[in-house]
Write a structure and sequence with these properties.
Layout: H1 6-20, H2 24-31, H3 36-48, E1 53-58, H4 64-69, E2 75-82, H5 85-97, E3 104-108, E4 121-127, H6 136-145, E5 147-158, H7 167-186, H8 189-200, H9 205-214, E6 217-225, E7 230-237
Parallel strand pairs: 1-2, 1-4, 2-3, 4-5
Antiparallel strand pairs: 5-7, 6-7
Helix pairs in contact: 2-7, 7-8
Bound molecules: S-adenosylmethionine.
């Protein structure tokens, strides 16, 4: 796949996630050996540490991070927003089955133009989505805009492993196992070939931390998970 940007990438990504929405959750469980649940739980707790108030989960997909956030102390309300109806419909059906302590609602919307006033949320999150957005910096600026001063922006994301002993193992998993699983489970090898390509083309953990600072976040930190293939980044909007 040639590297796409802007409206072309938006169309490509929308078409891809519409195609795989039905088997999206099953593929996540299989290709992460069920660990994605734990990563989301860790991210949700980190997102709200020391904070209280409403949370926005951008590009929420089938809503798993939004639902995990709904179970965290201090969260008063969660809004999960995604570009695509098929993903949002799946998220809505999950809330009905597993209501949490905080109300969780889902809506369709574009990460590049969040339909909320400035300073609306105590925390704004995004999981496995920044890689897929047509303009990463613009999306992060939007996330910061709708975060309250003193609030937090958090990303949970798959990233390239550039060095270390885990590199060959992680690369083999992404480049061989994931496309094969995708072909078997979703009959869509192309979608799960895009995934490792999008990871390879994404920023390094240090690069994303720099971008967090460039869009105005302070005290930026990150935590590495899954042999360095998954990272949680968070930063605070200046009070
Ligand atoms: C890999 S999925 C991640 C979904 C979910 N956050 C998760 O943790 O499983 C990427 C999601 O980004 C959404 N997406 C892509 N471009 C978007 C945009 N411009 N605005 C909002 N959502 C977008 C897709 O529809 C898809 O649901």
């Amino acid at each position: 796949m040639v590297e796409l940007k802007g409206p072309e990438k938006r169309r490509y990504v929308a078409d891809l996630f519409s195609r795989i929405s039905r088997r999206y959750d099953l593929m996540n469980t299989l290709m992460t050996f069920g660990m994605d649940r734990r990563w989301r739980k860790t991210a949700a707790r980190q997102a709200m540490e020391g904070l209280e108030g409403p949370v926005l989960d951008v590009a929420t997909g089938t809503g798993d991070l939004a639902l995990a956030l709904g179970r965290v102390v201090g969260v008063t309300e969660v809004v999960g927003m995604d570009l695509l109806n098929p993903m949002v419909s799946r998220a809505i059906s999950k809330v009905a089955r597993a209501p949490g302590p905080a109300p969780v609602t889902f809506m369709v919307g574009d990460a590049l133009s969040l339909p909320f006033p400035d300073d609306s949320f105590a925390c704004v999150t995004s999981a496995f989505s920044l890689r897929n957005l047509p303009d990463l910096e613009a999306a992060l600026r939007e996330m910061v805009r709708v975060t309250r001063p003193g609030g937090r922006v958090l990303s949970l994301e798959t990233m390239p492993v550039d060095k270390g002993m885990s590199r060959p193992l992680v690369r083999f998993h992404f480049r061989r196992i994931v496309p094969l699983l995708g072909a078997l489970i979703t009959f869509d090898r192309a979608a799960y070939t895009y995934l490792p390509q999008s990871v390879d083309r994404f920023l390094s953990p240090a690069g994303l931390a720099d971008l967090f600072r460039a869009v105005g976040l302070e005290t930026v930190q990150h935590q590495s998970l899954a042999l360095g293939a998954v990272h949680i980044h968070w930063g605070t909007k200046a009070p």
